[in-house]
Design goal:
Strand content: 5-15%
Radius of gyration: 41 Å
Largest sheet: 11 strands, mixed
Distance between the termini: 66 Å
Structural class: alpha/beta
Number of strands: 28
Shape: elongated
């Protein structure tokens, strides 16, 4: 090892000088402004080829393998190319060294170029699998979708629905009414003399009622059919896209490795593409690396490879019970059956005891799958595969997704629908029966006492006992309700959908209203001032109203029926987030802190803040950050050189994006290691010119699969992570030197470091500094932060031959091994990876020998590689000088301390055994003074890379976190003011969940977090609650204990906003619990997470949010856009990644307004129709004929009242719309007696006046001597079927006067129904211009109706005295104040109910709460 280190530390400044001069001349011939990073990337490729050996044309160009999509690498190995497009782009096809490239003109160009740069050709060992073609996979997807549709059924047939409609009470009542009227018509035609005109009206009424009955049956069948076909039609739309549109893979630069984006690397025609996991099919070949989660049941092809070549894993002890059995990777007891494979691959073992490496869905691919520890052959195989294992897909995920999305179990009924059903049942089963019985009883008494006994006329029985009760009950039948519901739903849904799309397209900011103080605690959420295109609303309205088939192929139309879009949005009481990254937090983590070392073994933490006004989009929050610029420079250089993201483009990049390296192709890395921090490097002070002298020579990917990981608090749902790091070797032209830049996992980087940079010089990485690094790292992890460590190492060579030829196209994969000292043998008697003494030794003596060895090597290291601050790289000016024999100075030694003293003091610390052996391994690169100048033959590339990553200099750390998106914290706060509880289902542990919840602004103290993991979970569940007050509060633990707690203890689980240790199944169960207790749940989550489909389908309304930016064009649909549609099948709305969550609050605000208008319209309609029945009943009490005929009532039900109530939808917003507490979806109708009192108080005066006008009109037109005014003797002595023409006209005139007066009263009263509690002065109805137009139209239509009815009448309007007209038309002045008094009383009740609701909403007190 020492000889190898000599080769690296030697110095030969004149080697390869011709080649380096050519590079310098080439760089100087090109303007610095036009040198993109890709040229810098390619320069090292050319230099390494020239420096090594002449290459033949066959070696320079990859060759296509006949019959496959793979290419032949220069070394003769077939390789699978990794691309984001259909055609391969090889490294040789990128811009050459001597080519010029114009500056980029947009950030999208950078993204495109970054996607090409990351699409490097990766070598694949022999035996690779070409996989399916895109056409074959698409055909399988279509077949699976068609099969799911063929097996789908809604649970009820059309005949069942029709029978259910026929047997409903309203249908039976309608049929009875039709039969009664038909009997009277037949009886009247036989017995009337002269012909009675009302008989013609009766047959018209029969025809109209029959048509209405058939129409309602059609609407019922249509609604049930469309409701059951919405999701199904969406699936058909996806099938159509698969058949007609060719989808493409996404760009790697845009796809972060986060849990909310389910992606896999699929081998299609020999080309590896990144695709969403729901687009893979059975038979696909996918690549997986350690840490990946299986998207479905998959089989590692190593198993099949061993079977085909005779290499099998056997089960020991002759156990035959495990044949074909899947061994769970987490169950260590099964790994004891695993044997090493046979050395001979030609011998085929026929033993049946073969273990297949199988993973089930949602299981993590870990090294333990191949045994603990991995065998030597498996480790060798791992290096051959470069960490990329091929798995065969054994099932199609789309099948499970469609089965969940097409679940026939309906969502809960909306609150307003429940209210309408209860009111309908109350009216039908109670009020209607009471009205019918009263009308029948009154007319029976009149018929018996007056007609039969007094007048001796028995011919009136049919009309009085059948027709008059039908007229009294006719207004209470829900004849027009189905049609009005269809119209109102179509309009409200169209309004919501158009508004939501407009908000997503609009670029204006959300602002508070002018009359709202933004510092007011009770201020409603801000809104965006957008103008909704009325033409688009009406177009969408007609499309929704008249649609019969294909209701769901247009995703923009939403699931308006199955989700009850407007009703659910307007009644939301809980908004739950089942994802974090990309939905409520940024998809890429943002840098939050930077830790650097300072003098005297101290560290400083600098806070970094995102700032849109800053030139680079972020800034240091500490004003004195430039004091530590010397410590920040190496980190900034590292962040800019290790990215290759297009940071040298003509335009600044201020968006979050991914680092362009292929490390995540070989081992799964967390998002922090994939996030590019080039903006921070530029904020430190780097310019584009500072990076031009550097060319990349080699990428080294290091991973540490056996590094002891910290104990996970919740292992089952926490992402498994293998420590990895990326090391790059750069050549600097000016100094003709090389250096290693490293970033990666903290534990992995620290393992390879022996010193640290404090801004002034190099210091030994002793236990004091290690403890500070460890404390900072552990604190960051607990607080839901991700850490990236940075390191550096200069490489100076005496001879150029010391650096072997480097293959720039293929990264070097290095597996770091553990050197662990047994805790019981701290004397060093046992350790792996080190030589042991053959003779016996005392433990104390061996312990001292270890310290002596460390001390000796430290002294040698100081003598051979002493470096001062002047020789550390100056990243801003690019003056990098690596120490050689002439640079040996004593500047790095602190004043007053000798080399020996510093070495001794570094070893006298109480170091842990692992740290001691780490130091010994680091010292292997330090050589004795006697062997400094000894040079041997050059090392090979692998050995050189392994040595190059050792003995590095620790530079610092950066913490990154998924910060809440813009306005998310304010959004959550405004939800609380609106009575909507925000709930976050976190898969992380309690501490990490609370840390993120604290960033969101959620409460994190007592009674604020509930663990949904079961205490009996065998796979890493936490031990329980950490805080004492949570333990004393006896909060439930586990989803299975939530319902018993709610039933027997308290309702704290319904008031908690944070659920930790929550899996997808637990989230679905908790949503169901919320719904069972009356909550209306809105679920927001990533539309690219395949695990969210079940939660989307369970919630009342779901919003699928794009976690990353996705763009597609009609010719080539993005695969991720198609995948988002598949996962969003149960979602009513889909939201773009750039859309603010305030769009949701504004949509909820609009839905509440529309819902209030719909509710008030329904109340006004029901009250108006009940007033007609009461009017008819009162007229019967005065022994009068019917005040209105059947066709009069139908005219009001289908024309007048609908015009008035539909105009309510255009009412302005009430000021307290978003500060009112919504009602829960339980106990939908309370205080029914109070509302009956309100009805009588508001309608009794108009009814009295209408009856008076009807009475007096009959008196005017048919007055005789002895005419009794109070109990009218109209038609006395003459049977009704024998009335003369004058009497018939007199009745018709009186009915029309009453009808006009009733319409006038309803027009006046409708303005008071627009708002339930606000007075006319506070909520002026005339601001609704549509309502004014509707009122004028109603009066005009009623006037025309009256004129047509009385066109040939013999009487004159002038016969009625003028005072009756004045009194009747000025009567609203009397009853309108009563309306305001009733509303004022109702306001007091509402305020009281709101206070109780807010108190219940904000309380956290339970039976065992600490307060």
């Amino acid at each position: 090892m020492n000889n190898k280190s000599n080769n690296m530390n030697g110095s030969d400044p004149h080697s390869n000088i011709e080649h380096l001069n050519s590079i310098v001349d080439m760089e100087s011939s090109t303007p610095p402004e036009s040198v993109p990073l890709s040229r810098l990337d390619m320069s090292h490729s050319a230099s390494s080829r020239d420096a090594s050996a002449p290459t033949t044309p066959d070696q320079r160009q990859p060759q296509r393998i006949p019959g496959s999509g793979a290419t032949q690498s220069p070394r003769g190995q077939p390789r699978i190319n990794t691309y984001d497009s259909d055609e391969p782009v090889l490294i040789d096809n990128l811009p050459q060294q001597n080519s010029t490239q114009a500056p980029r003109h947009s950030e999208d160009d950078d993204l495109e170029r970054g996607g090409q740069e990351i699409s490097l050709t990766l070598t694949e060992p022999e035996g690779s699998f070409p996989g399916l073609t895109t056409d074959e996979a698409t055909t399988k997807l279509i077949d699976v979708a068609n099969l799911a549709l063929s097996e789908y059924h809604t649970g009820s047939t059309n005949m069942d629905n029709f029978v259910r409609y026929l047997t409903s009470f309203s249908s039976i009542a309608t049929i009875v009414a039709i039969l009664c009227l038909l009997v009277f018509y037949i009886y009247g035609r036989i017995n009337s003399s002269p012909t009675q005109g009302r008989l013609i009206g009766t047959i018209v009424e029969v025809a109209i009622l029959a048509g209405i009955f058939i129409w309602n049956a059609y609407l019922n069948r249509r609604e049930m059919k469309l409701r059951g076909r919405e999701v199904r039609d969406r699936v058909k739309g996806i099938i159509m896209e698969l058949e007609t549109i060719r989808y493409q893979a996404g760009q790697e630069l845009k796809i972060p490795s986060i849990p909310s984006v389910s992606t896999v690397r699929v081998v299609r025609s020999g080309i590896v593409k990144t695709l969403p996991s729901n687009l893979i099919v059975k038979g696909d070949m996918i690549e997986m690396v350690f840490g990946d989660v299986a998207p479905c049941k998959v089989l590692c092809m190593i198993s099949r490879h061993y079977m085909e070549h005779g290499n099998h894993h056997h089960l020991q002890n002759g156990d035959t019970h495990h044949h074909g059995r899947y061994l769970h990777p987490h169950q260590d007891q099964y790994h004891q059956f695993l044997e090493k494979p046979h050395s001979s691959s030609r011998h085929r073992d026929t033993s049946p005891h073969i273990r297949e490496f199988l993973l089930l869905r949602k299981e993590t691919f870990q090294p333990s799958l191949f045994g603990i520890p991995m065998s030597d052959e498996m480790q060798k195989r791992h290096e051959e595969l470069q960490g990329r294992y091929t798995f065969e897909v054994l099932e199609t995920p789309l099948e499970r997704i469609l089965e969940t999305a097409l679940d026939p179990i309906p969502r809960p009924k909306s609150l307003i629908l429940k209210q309408l059903l209860i009111i309908n049942n109350v009216i039908l089963f109670r009020v209607l029966l009471v009205i019918v019985l009263l009308a029948f009883a009154i007319n029976l008494l009149r018929y018996v006492l007056k007609e039969v006994i007094q007048l001796g006329n028995a011919t009136q029985g049919v009309e009085q006992l059948l027709v008059l009760p039908v007229y009294a009950a006719l207004p209470l039948l829900p004849l027009s309700l189905p049609t009005l519901l269809q119209i109102s739903k179509a309009f409200t849904n169209a309004t919501i959908l158009v508004l939501f799309n407009t908000l997503q397209i609009s670029k204006t900011e959300y602002e508070d209203e002018k009359d709202v103080d933004e510092f007011d605690v009770e201020a409603p959420p801000p809104t965006k001032n957008v103008n909704i295109a009325r033409r688009e609303v009406w177009t969408r309205f007609w499309r929704l109203l008249l649609r019969w088939g294909d209701s769901g192929q247009d995703f923009d139309d939403g699931l308006t029926r199955s989700t009850n879009l407007v009703e659910s949005l307007g009644g939301i009481t809980v908004i739950c987030s089942i994802d974090k990254e990309g939905t409520i937090a940024t998809a890429f983590p943002e840098v939050e802190q930077v830790l650097v070392a300072t003098e005297n073994e101290e560290t400083v933490v600098l806070d970094v803040l995102e700032d849109e006004l800053s030139p680079n989009g972020l800034r240091f929050e500490d004003k004195d950050w430039e004091t530590y610029i010397q410590s920040l420079k190496p980190i900034g250089l590292n962040q800019l050189l290790n990215t290759k993201c297009g940071s040298l483009s003509a335009f600044r990049r201020i968006d979050d994006h991914r680092k362009c390296n292929t490390l995540h192709f070989h081992s799964r890395t967390r998002a922090a290691q994939q996030t590019c921090l080039c903006r921070l490097g530029k904020e430190i002070g780097f310019t584009n010119e500072a990076l031009y002298p550097f060319t990349l020579q080699k990428e080294i990917f290091c991973y540490h699969p056996n590094l002891p990981m910290a104990q996970m608090t919740f292992g089952k749902l926490t992402n498994f992570e293998i420590p990895t790091m990326l090391s790059t070797i750069y050549h600097e032209k000016a100094g003709n030197s090389h250096m290693v830049l490293t970033d990666g996992h903290v534990e992995c980087v620290v393992e390879c470091c022996s010193e640290y940079w404090d801004g002034a010089g190099l210091q030994e990485l002793n236990d004091v500094m290690l403890k500070k690094i460890s404390d900072f790292y552990q604190t960051a992890v607990v607080n839901d932060l991700q850490c990236v460590a940075y390191a550096y190492r200069p490489i100076s060579t005496e001879q150029d031959s010391a650096i072997p030829p480097l293959d720039t196209a293929t990264p070097q994969i290095i597996t770091l091994t553990n050197r662990v000292v047994d805790e019981d043998d701290k004397d060093g008697d046992k350790f792996s990876g080190s030589d042991k003494s053959n003779g016996p030794s005392n433990r104390d003596d061996d312990a001292h020998s270890i310290d002596d060895e460390i001390e000796r090597r430290l002294r040698a290291r100081e003598r051979s590689r002493a470096m001062s601050a002047n020789h550390m790289p100056d990243p801003v000016n690019i003056v990098i000088r690596i120490g050689d024999a002439s640079d040996l100075e004593e500047d790095s030694i602190q004043p007053g301390t000798s080399i020996e003293d510093s070495a001794v003091s570094a070893t006298k610390m109480d170091a842990a055994p692992l740290q001691r052996w780490r130091k010994l391994r680091e010292m292997e690169l330090s050589e004795d003074p006697e062997t400094v100048t000894a040079l041997e033959a050059p090392m090979n590339e692998t050995e050189f890379c392994k040595d190059a990553i050792q003995g590095q200099i620790f530079l610092g750390m950066a913490t990154l976190a998924h910060q809440p998106k813009t306005n998310v914290c304010d959004f959550i706060e405004d939800l609380g003011l609106a009575g909507i509880r925000f709930v976050y289902f976190s898969p992380a542990s309690e501490r990490e969940s609370k840390a993120f919840a604290d960033r969101l602004g959620l409460e994190t103290d007592w009674n604020s977090c509930i663990l949904l993991s079961s205490a009996s979970d065998p796979f890493g569940a936490s031990s329980g609650y950490l805080e004492s007050y949570d333990i004393k509060a006896q909060l439930p633990r586990g989803i299975e204990n939530i319902r018993p707690h709610l039933e027997t203890t308290d309702d704290i689980p319904l008031h908690v906003s944070l659920f930790a240790e929550c899996g997808n199944e637990a989230a679905v169960d908790m949503i169901k619990i919320f719904q069972d207790y009356g909550e209306v749940v809105c679920c927001i989550g990533s539309s690219l997470n395949s695990e969210n489909v079940a939660a989307f389908a369970k919630a009342d309304i779901s919003v699928g949010m794009e976690p990353i930016r996705m763009h597609s064009n009609p010719e080539s649909r993005s695969a991720f856009s198609l995948a988002a549609k598949i996962n969003s099948l149960p979602c009513g709305l889909t939201m773009h990644s750039e859309t603010s969550l305030y769009a949701l609050t504004q949509v909820v605000r609009e839905a509440r307004r529309l819902l209030n208008s719909q509710r008030q319209g329904a109340v006004f309609m029901i009250a108006s129709l009940m007033s007609i029945s009461l009017l008819m009943l009162v007229s019967y009490c005065f022994l009068l004929p019917q005040a209105m005929t059947g066709y009069h009532i139908l005219w009001l039900m289908w024309i007048i009242i609908p015009l008035l109530i539909l105009s309510f939808f255009f009412s302005p917003h009430e000021p307290d719309t978003m500060t009112m507490m919504p009602s829960k979806n339980m106990s939908p109708l309370r205080d029914l007696p109070r509302f009956i009192f309100y009805f009588l108080a508001r309608f009794i005066l108009p009814i009295v006046m209408c009856v008076f006008v009807f009475l007096y009109s009959l008196h005017i037109y048919d007055g005789k001597e002895g005419y009794h005014f109070l109990f009218n003797s109209f038609g006395a002595g003459t049977p009704w079927l024998e009335w003369s023409s004058d009497k018939q006209w007199a009745l018709l005139y009186s009915q029309n006067y009453t009808l006009v007066l009733w319409v006038w009263y309803m027009v006046c009263m409708s303005g008071t129904f627009m708002s339930r509690t606000l007075s006319v002065r506070a909520f002026a109805p005339w601001r609704n211009r549509v309502w004014i137009g509707a009122c004028a139209a109603c009066l005009a239509l009623q006037f025309v109706f009256c004129v047509i009815s009385l066109f040939r009448g013999p009487h004159r309007v002038q016969d009625v005295p003028w005072w009756l007209f004045v009194l009747s038309f000025l009567w609203p002045v009397v009853f309108l104040p009563v309306q305001e008094l009733v509303k004022a009383r109702d306001l007091k009740e509402c305020v009281r109910a709101q206070k109780l609701a807010k108190l219940e909403f904000n309380t956290k007190l339970g039976m065992h709460s600490p307060l």
